[in-house]
Amino acid sequence: MGRPRTRDWDELRRELLEAAGRLLAQEGPQALSTRRVAHEVGTSTTAVYNLFQDKAGLLRAMFLDGFAALEERFADVPVDGDPEADLLALGYAYRAAARANPHRYDLMFGRPIADFLPSEADLARIRGTFDTLVRAVARCVACGRFAPTDPDDIATHLSALVHGLASLELRGALGEGEQADHRWRIALEAACRGHRAVTWAAVPG
Amino acid sequence: MGRPRTRDWDELRRELLEAAGRLLAQEGPQALSTRRVAHEVGTSTTAVYNLFQDKAGLLRAMFLDGFAALEERFADVPVDGDPEADLLALGYAYRAAARANPHRYDLMFGRPIADFLPSEADLARIRGTFDTLVRAVARCVACGRFAPTDPDDIATHLSALVHGLASLELRGALGEGEQADHRWRIALEAACRGHRAVTWAAVPG
DNA sequence: CGGTGTTATGAAACAGCGTTGCGGTACTGT
DNA sequence: ACAGTACCGCAACGCTGTTTCATAACACCG
Questions:
Q1: Percentage of residues in chain B having pLDDT higher than 70
Q2: CB B160 to CB A153 under 8 A?
């Protein structure tokens, strides 16, 4: 008994997330107010508190969605080609994800909204994305391309590098168009070269 | 004519900046409200609007202070030793600055407060810090240690890397104590090695 | 069919934020 | 002494996240 739901909860939840994602992508994090998001789908702020615990809950859902999208891009990267080429492809997939939705990237890896901090559980949920990178690195080490080093350490290095590059690029500090491409290539290739077991090309192009 | 200032402007400005810096360091960006900062030095919010244009002006001042502190640390790094060692020292100076005041680091390189975006002029003001890095890289290229590459591109690579490492470390993603040290070393050394003109040590320790 | 219980819902209240305008204060030039 | 004015802080406005509460709408029961 009790008053029946005039809207399906799952559907409303999806609509709210969609609206919030659109607002974040198009107008940035400042547009993400509970009133605004609720109004966008024709309901009131209470719905946000029913379906997500609070605003941080809404942000957490978007945060996890972002990592799901990143993981999807990673899944499209082959794992059976040249190990180092695959590794570079992961880097470029990361770059593409950041450029596709800069504000969401900020939500995932920056901290544009003060009152949201990913919990330990959220971070564990994310570990999977990082593991994809570790596996790709491990292949480079296993086949002798990379010097015998803890793949976790190398993956951490590369992860820091792509995050730094993405941050600089989204801030416009990497230059325009081709120059940004060039700098991504310079950095990623040098980073990989630095881990090679044997360097047969002393002078890069 | 006119009512005399009951407090010296420069002094009040300094006090406000100091209080804001203390609040940011100890309680994080959420504690940085105009009311709170003003109350901390025994004045009202109006002072903030007199001395800085608005809250963003206060944040901009702290932002510039942060870069001044970073520049000071860079100035302490020798420029007459082994070029690559000097370059690594710059990286560790950057790390030390980030760890000394994590919240201020976020303010400088992240975007913890939505309504503050550094202007073009601010970014130009900062270019000097980046130039220190470019010069150190140029020395490595000039003496033949690094392959002939645009020093700007290499400096961009290293800058992205240290920013990424600092971000990960401040988030606790680099592990505890020695492990974080180890990962900084692995990453910085591999990055430098990747730019070497000749690699004589094929397998790193 | 009417009453009742239960639940969904949105409007309104509350505290806090950045910001602005107004009125009072306290000194200086005449 | 008096007028003028630069300064200062209180209070208001519109916004935020969050909670509360009155209302609405159904299912069940007598």
A1: 91
A2: no
Task: Give the SS3 label for residue B200.
Answer: coil
Q: Is the pTM of this model over 0.85?
A: yes
Q: Which nucleotide is nearest to B2 (CA to C1')?
A: D6
Question: Could you say which DSSP state residue B5 is in?
Answer: P
Do residues A105 and A28 make contact, with C-beta atoms less than 8 angstroms apart? no
Is residue A40 pLDDT above 70, yes or no? yes
Shortest-distance nucleotide from B38 CA to C1':
D9
A190 and B157 within 8 Å at the Cβ level: the answer is: yes
> Which whole number is the average pLDDT over A145-156?
98
Report CB contact under 8 Å: A161, B159: no
User: Which bases along strand C come within 7 Å of a protein CB atom?
Assistant: 5-12, 16-21, 24-29
Nearest of A90, A112, A109, A92 to residue A29 by alpha carbon: A112
Q: How far is CA A97 from CA A101, A110, A181, B25, in A?
A: 7, 14, 15, 32
Give the residue-averaged pLDDT of B45-57. 93
Residue B99 has pLDDT above 80, yes or no: yes
**Would you give the end-to-end CA distance of chain A in angstroms?**
74
**pLDDT at position B10:** 83
> Environment class of residue B10 by beta-carbon count within 10 Å: exposed (0-12), middle (13-18) or buried (19+)?
exposed
**Per-position DSSP letters for A171-190, written without gaps between them:** TTTT-SHHHHHHHHHHHHHH
Q: What is the mean pLDDT of residues B42-53?
A: 93
Of residues B115, B162, B194, nearest to A194 (C-beta): B194
A191 Cβ nearer than 7 Å to chain D strand: no
Query: Which segment of A47-61, A119-133, A163-177, B51-65 scores lowest on mean pLDDT?
Result: A119-133
State the average pLDDT for chain A. Answer: 92
Test mutation, B119, B122, B157, B178, chain A, max A CBs within 10 A: B157
Q: Is the CB of B45 under 7 A from strand D?
A: yes
Give the closest residue to C28 (Cα–C1′). Answer: B1
Contacts of B88 by beta carbon, 8 Å cutoff, 6+ apart: B188, B189, B192
